[in-house]
Amino acid sequence: MSSIGNRRFSEELVAMVGRRVSVSTGDGKQYSGELMGIDEKLNLVLGSVVGGGESTMRVVLNGSFVREIDLLEKPFDLRALNERLARAFPGMTKLREDIGAILVMDSIKVTEKGVVEGADRLSATRVKQIYEEFARETSKKT
């Protein structure tokens, strides 16, 4: 059970990379910026940082000082997109949360950024339409 929990924890951390976060440190400082990278010890790199009394391009924080990391934006809902794609392509979608992607017919790769592989396939046009509709609908809700 522990390895499953560790894997899920790692997946959640990876899903935060590239997103805006707020970080509290043990010494009471607050930093806000884009999470550029993070490791298993919670050492992290923030980009476009505001906090700690100044603005800067990059900050590297030692994980032993990190007290809290808050996600400041709503994450992209790959599961909901997968459900929608599965209605159009029954039995032909695979949700790969570990890589942040959905595989359609094992040849079309969809991420939160859209169709990133297999775009030359005829069926990719339909996948792209479903993705764009889903993205429009979810952006209206936020």
**CATH topology description of the largest domain:** SH3 type barrels
The coarse silhouette is elongated
Distance between the termini: 35 Å
CATH architecture call of the largest domain: Roll
Measured as a percent range, the helix fraction is 25-40%
**SSE order in H/E notation?**
HEEEEEHEEEEH
Average pLDDT figure: 88
Which strands sit side by side, in order, in the main sheet? 4-3-2-1-5
**Helical segment count:** 3
Outline the biggest β-sheet: 5 strands, antiparallel
The low-confidence parts are none
Describe this structure as you would to a colleague.
With 142 residues, the chain is α+β, with helices and mostly antiparallel strands. The chain has two domains: 2-71, Roll (SH3 type barrels), CATH 2.30.30; 78-141, TATA-Binding Protein (2-Layer Sandwich). It is 32% helix and 37% strand. The strands form two sheets. Strands 4-3-2-1-5 form a five-stranded antiparallel β-sheet, with helices on one face. Strands 6-7-8-9 form a four-stranded antiparallel β-sheet, with helices on one face. It starts with a helix and ends with a helix.
Labels describing this entry:
single chain, 142 residues, alpha+beta, SH3 type barrels, TATA-Binding Protein, 2 domains, five-stranded antiparallel β-sheet, four-stranded antiparallel β-sheet, 3 helices, elongated
